[in-house]
Amino acid sequence: MKKDLITSNNTASKDWGITDLLTKIKRVVNELEIKNYIVKFRRDSTCINSDELHQCIMPEDFTIDETYHFETMSNPDTNRILYAISLSQGTKGFLIDSRDVYTDNISPEMMQKLESYKNGSNGDHFSCVDKIY
Predict the structure, then answer these.
(1) Which residue intervals of 5-107 are DSSP H helices?
(2) pLDDT higher for 127 or 38?
(3) Which of the 8 DSSP states describes residue 80?
(4) CA max distance for the chain
(5) Which one in 17, 65, 83, 101 has a CA-CA gap of 20 to 30 Å to 114?
(6) pLDDT tens digits for 105-127?
(7) Taking Cα atoms as reference points, which of 23, 53, 24, 28 lies closest to residue 41?
(8) How far is C-alpha 6 from the geometric centre of its chain's CA atoms?
(9) Distance between CA 66 and CA 47 in Å, rounded?
């Protein structure tokens, strides 16, 4: 599994680097779409879902293949994590979420699934790469 850290130091901008961050996220999404990660997922309290699939996908029914961490040095509230996800039946997509998963609105199973990949505790190598796009 691939994990990347993508940072932005653009504090001179009036938008606190958000535009730069969004540009980097879009570039990664475009790269993932080339690899057939095309479904846009949302996180709910117990599952992930999408408008295209019209179903709730439980944590045991998806795999996180890659993660990308997006950070701005000036505003931690804008930090995001992008998960490249494969479903058990073969569908691929992505989920963009806050860098901090909020425990008050997520099930323990979803928390465990997302946190294990976010923190690299799933046994896979965690590489912290500053990609420049």
Answers:
(1) 18-34
(2) 38
(3) E
(4) 46
(5) 17
(6) 888 898 888 877 665 444 332 33
(7) 53
(8) 12
(9) 18
